[in-house]
Amino acid sequence: MTVRVDMGQDGKGDAVAMDLEELLATRLLVQGNSGSGKSHLLRRLLEKSAGHVQQVIIDPEGDFVTLSDRYGHISIEAADYSEREIARFATRIREHRASVVLSLEGLEAEGQMKCAAAFLNAMFDAPRDHWYPALVVVDEAQLFAPSGGGEVAEDVRRASLSAMTNLMCRGRKRGLAGVIATQRLAKLAKNVAAEASNFLMGRTFLDIDMARAADLLGMERRQAEAIRDLARGHFLALGPAVSRRPISVQIGAVETSARSGSPKLTPLPEAPSAELKDLLLAPAEPEWTPPAPPAPSAPPQLASDRLLEALARSTPAREEIPDVDPEEAAQKIAEVLRDITADEESTYRSPSVLYQDFLVRCRMVGLARPPLDLSSFVRRLSAARAGIHGDPDDDWAQALEAARALPDDMLGPFLLVARAAREGAPCPSDTEIAATYGTSSLGRVRRLLQYIESKELFVTRTDLSGKRSITIPRLGWTTQPAEIGSS
């Protein structure tokens, strides 16, 4: 099915259309200085293609959330959620083909980059069954794919740049069509910009940006001056989805608007300068007015006396806690952990939340003071997720000692593989490892195994039939070969 999106008119007054199916295959780069009409162009494209294709907008300033009122986009305020929750949302978005606006307003630059990287990676790692076509619009792309280092941490910059590179370089096979917009071509990573085959170049004034824009449009350097003379809302377009030769396009009107528009001149207040000075320099009003003195009455009770009485009333009577046999307590703790791991929702809850749940469950089975602090609970929970329901410190001292080089959240996957290797059982599948790691992304599982292997804790072998086995050289344990995707 061919869908042509009306973008506006050329210099002769003829309509200029964007071939949506071609755009999905060839991607788009939009460039223009602030005030050139870049966001207006993106809004026109989104409005005219709404209903024909899934749309996902990464919005640093929250300008596109107004699409939800008119076109039904789901608005997600990233500042209200954790990175893991944002990644889980992205997986569901691909599954249900929902059009969304991920608003990063309220986050600092580093937080925006972390959030965008987690979101894009989760979309990229979605199961093959969910590779539906989608426009992924990234405004202010130079923030997420900078050409050089900045004030953010290097690992954050690398993660964000890698996610943007995946979107533009490898996203097409997964149905993801990148549409990126930037104010400065010189600040956008070249390997990200070079993957676009369609270009809409707006007004820019810096020579370095004009030179790059002219190169992308196939224009001579002396013709680049034309880019400086473009009016607001006018762009030079080139690409298989719009035109085989550079043409001028005046972007058409839109039906929605951003929450924050361009500044407009308004009349200044008409007030005499003397009155205005008195108003500005008036002393600050007191934030607290002392209460009026109480009427004469009985001698007031001292504050310390009232405090002691309140404490006496609020302190519950001390109850005797019966002693519990250690073996019985250990059995009850194992049962509680077994119940927690059996709950599918527990996979995605934080350890602190699960620890509170653990304490409540223990009180319900008669353990008022379970002998596990938060750190010990995390260790036991990881072991329980790996199918080890007893105390791992007894029989698994060697494995736990070897795993000390790993972060706490990787202990569960390590013990799952160690248990299979110790028993000579088939190697756990990626799906089983993902469940102990608290993720649904098989791509993250593969990166997890690579990380553990880099620590020389795993040696992974895959035979010609595609079956994988894992050896733990420090322990001398090896799993049986098994299909990677089996469950």
TrEMBL record:
Organism, scientific name: Sphingomonas kyeonggiensis
Protein's name according to its UniProt entry: Helicase HerA central domain-containing protein
Occurrences of domain Helicase HerA central (ranges): 15-72
Record InterPro entries: ATPase_Atu1862_pred (IPR014588), HerA-like (IPR008571), HerA_central (IPR002789), P-loop_NTPase (IPR027417)
Source organism, top-level taxon: Bacteria
